[in-house]
Amino acid sequence: MLAYQLAGWTQDMWSAIIGLFSFIPNWGFMIIVFTIVLKLILSPLDYWQRKITRKNAVKQASMQPELEKIQKRYGNNKQLLNQKTMELYKRENFSVMGSCVGMLVNMALTLFIFFTLFSGLTGMSNTEVVNQYKNGVEVEYNQKFVEVFEVAESDIKSKEDAIFATAVTEAQTELETTELNDQVYSKALEIMFRADTTNADYQKLQEVQKYAAEKYNNEIKQGFLWVKNLWRPDTSSSVFTDFGSYQRIANLYNTEEFKNELAPLIEGKSDEEVKTITEELKTTYKNRYNITTYGINQQYKGVWNGYFILVILAGVITYLSIKLSQMQSTKKKNKNEVPAQTNGAMNIMKFLLPALMIVFTIGYSTAFSLYIVTNSIMSTIISFVLLKIFEKQESKTNKPGSITISPAKAKNRPSYSREFLNEDK
Asked: pTM of the entire structure?
């Protein structure tokens, strides 16, 4: 229950925010522009955090000679070693936690945005998938059905059931079986939509189906460049959802529509009868969906929704973004002075995050994939710009990253001070 509430809250929040860009006619471009604006708004925090991290990394590297000298002199006395190390940090105004605060704030905000936006865009995608059928294809199908068959809208189901029952009987004859199963139902669909049929009802139904398919292609479906359906993954997944996917997304068997239709059928029935009737109604819903969408599914049968382009971009660009961030943490000439564990952690993240981004883009909608790719591109650009800014700032000093000690401090400088080391050079 809590998960559904959180999903609803994040969906409403991000839907409203992205909706500010509704002047853009395509949802794909809306998400791209929204992501760019969001990244620019957050860039000052990114700059602050990276500047502190870089400054501390450079300062720590420059203190390394003195830290090594302290280690050699007091290595056998852990308490004194810690005391002298802290004295050095204090004298040089170095805080171990200096970069951690900014990093934690930035990480917390990044994770909050990522996971709430993930939940929000996933919810929006599911809502759009349901709307494409319920408020789009089904509505157009019903309107055309009334027109072609000249029946009232309330009689659509009974007329459709009668036509389908005839097709099921023919399917049983062709398959030489009396069973009622998915094989028979699939054959019945095939019979109704055969191009050479002479059955007047089948011909009319094909006309209705063709109309619904055209409406879906031209007005209902929302694509983006090479992707045919924005709300489906940019992969080899089907363009239009099959019934199994639809009923999971729509939570169909818990809807009021299903419950209201089921209630009068099971009233006064035994538990065993209720179970049988419920399964029969579920099958009826499945057949209705397949009849309504048969033309669409046949048209896109075996057709990929996308070509894994966003999936590949998500992995490659995320890798490049992390690589640039890694370069920012220290200057090239000091790269060997960065602690080994830091380099190790960076190298792990350099491959772990791209892999995670690939997983997210494969399993979820193109809408979310667009956010990931655009965000990664912006991160790479911002990282490159910040790197150049930091290099320019440091080039203004004679010894970029060097730490100077004031005359006041010099009076009481210890023998292991870096100044003595510098004087010996």
From this structure: 0.77
